[in-house]
Amino acid sequence: MSGPPFHIKAKPGDIAEKAILVGDPGRVDVVAGLLSDTRVVNRHRGFYTVTGLYNGERITVATHGIGGASAAIVFEELGMLGAKVFVRLGTCGGFKPELTIGKVVVATSAAHYHGGTPGQYFPGICMANGSDPVLTARIMEYLERHGIEYFSGPVFSSDAFYAEDPEFARRWARMGVLAVEMECATLFTLSWLRGWRSACVLVVSDNLLEMEKEPRFATTEELREVFIRVTRAVLDALVSL
Questions:
Q1: How many helical (H) and strand (E) elements, i.e. helices and strands, does the chain have?
Q2: CA distances from 75 to 3, 16, 113, 139, 213 (A)
């Protein structure tokens, strides 16, 4: 199915070729606070979207909601409106003791169970689900330039937030997976299908191994300073392309 977009009520000229994608609408304001000449281009269906300038280059920041199904709508419609480079800036749950709240993870690929949103696009196929290597390397370079330490490796894209528990974390950690989130597999597989470039940077909001001892889930506001630092690095990486 192709457009027109039914959920993002924006015109093609409203959307930049380079986009930062977030799950939390509140995070749009954090990112947009680093842009100039910002303009809200969509609020329909809660998919809050802003376009502005960073060092003279147009950047769009958009909310994709929670989960692959919601995110796929936003990715597809932004693509219809002219976006070609996508960086998801989100949160994740750590699978390893060292992945404590506030740490940064660069997702190089995303494991997922058969089915779900990728399964509807690619029935019976295990589609390639890695990030764009050049874009990801550039983001790592700029994280290092900004003095931000990070972990890099595969994450797991879940379709069921409340199905996760410490044993789930230990099982995936044994397979070398760093953390859990909910949208990377959809973004990466769709990007290869549509010819987009995509990457993902995550801030740890909780550690699943610690949940049975002390349940805690950090909010965007609590992680605000980390997100500002990471966003600056991502923006510098995007305008360097």
A1: 7, 9
A2: 12, 13, 21, 20, 37
- Strand partners for 18: 85
What is the average per-residue pLDDT within 9-34? 96
AA identity, residue 117: T
- Cβ atoms within 10 Å, residue 17: 14
The beta strand positions in the chain, using DSSP E, are 18-22, 36-42, 49-54, 57-63, 85-94, 104-111, 151-157, 179-181, 197-207
Q: Which pLDDT score is estimated for 1?
A: 58
Tens digits of per-residue pLDDT, 64-83?
A: 999 999 999 999 999 999 99
Helix crossing, 68-80 with 184-194: angle to 10°? 30
d(CA 223, CA 182): 19
Alpha-carbon distance of 54 to 173, in angstroms, equals 37
HSE of 137, CA atoms in CB hemisphere, 13 A: 3
Q: How far apart are CA 92 and CA 101, in angstroms?
A: 9
Which residues, including other chains, have CB under 8 Å from residue 198's CB and lie 6 or more apart?
A: 85, 86, 87, 88, 131, 132, 135, 187, 188, 191
| DSSP 3-state of 189 | helix
Across the strands, what pairs with 207?
A: 94
For residue 20, count other CB atoms closer than 10 A to its CB.
27
CA distance 221 to 74: 23
Give dist(CA 229, CA 227) in Å, integer. Answer: 5
Please provide residue 49's backbone torsions phi and psi, each rounded to the nearest 5 degrees: -135, 135
